[in-house]
Amino acid sequence: MSGPLSGFGVVLARDLRLAFRRPGEMANPLLFFILITAIFPLGLSPEPELLRAVAPGILWGAALLSSLLALDLLFGSDYEDGSLEQLVLSGHSLPVLVLAKTTAHWVVSALPLVVVAPLLASALYLPQEAWGTLMLGLLIGTPTLSLLGAMGAALTTGLGTGSALLSLLVLPLATPILIFGARGVDLAAQGMDPVGPLYLLAAILFLALSLLPLAIAAAVRISLD
Amino acid sequence: MPCSDGTGSEGMLSKDTQEILMQAEALELWRGERCLFRDLSIELPEETVLHVSGPNGCGKTSLLRVLCGLSEPEKGEIRWRGRSIRNDREDYQQAFAWMGHLNGFKADLSARENLAFSVSLRRKTDNEVRNNILDQVGLTSAADLPCRVLSAGQKRRLSLATIMLSAARLWILDEPFTNLDAKGRDMITGLLNSHCASGGTAIVAAHQELGVEQRYLQHLEMEDKS
Q: Which overall architecture, per CATH, does domain B15-221 show?
């Protein structure tokens, strides 16, 4: 077997291919993201000042919730059909393989949110100067959300008692991302420098990238024991 | 409590000249309040098929999962070619192929894609080799169907194809005969014989006779202790 990263590409390619076989499931988080953002103006009021003020929180909250949506599937289907066993026993480094699965999950469920975010931001009257911060923040914040979610999914896989527990596990850990992400957008919307919260998001991402795959791999092993 | 003893006396050849590939020493596993096995030792030289048998629920699958490293035993140690599998997990994993109750195939991928993925996790093969194997296990006509529509027996055959292509020295097969027709069962027997002939070794949990040549065969009879 060549190199510590062997297996990453194989698993990533398989999971992406599987996702594209089920475009309906794939579109689910994106649709959810759009719907949440769309109903707030209806419920609150159409005043631009109000919407502009709440937009960062709504957008980031919606992103956080939709990142929780498809987590069950991350390890659940592999657990049920036995391919998780085969992955664990494949002779590759398990943290690398779970990182590949999480990456595929992020590409499918979070990357589309980053792309449509400016569209929704404009619907909420968020000033254009803040769109870049919003996209950049989502780009470096959602991978952490996916990693945290993957850890929750790995811990609850095999318990059979689905997503309520998973959300309870993941949400408290994900709140810093929500706070820094929304704060960055807020600062940018007021014409201030958003770089502080963005740096913090990046720091959290690198921490998560280096530690969480190990935790996820350990949780997967436990779920199979 | 005396437990099943792994070192069967069936081997007729002078096994001392053969390399001992796997050793399991004094394994003990509990599930809740129940001891599934205790003081279970296995010594597995090359060119051997270890036939694990016993009543339902006696812990055959649990033993196999312990031997794979999927479950941790309460006590005992497993060594592959003299080295503990705990220290050398990835090396050990590359040396064996596991076929459990679940086949590990994605329902949305075709038989061909599933095989390609499973094999590519282990080594590089080209299309032709994979097509040959699919032909050998009798899946050529179904190769492009999604696994969702394959019968249980066909999926079993696809599992066998994966095992054949794994180039693993040790096969650990849990109830490989399930869902297979007579031809399929004969195929497994043939595969086990040729695997042994080429220096491999296998651990097979099954209720029926394996039909492999006597000189390869060892028995491990597990008892129900509930």
A: 3-Layer(aba) Sandwich (3.40)
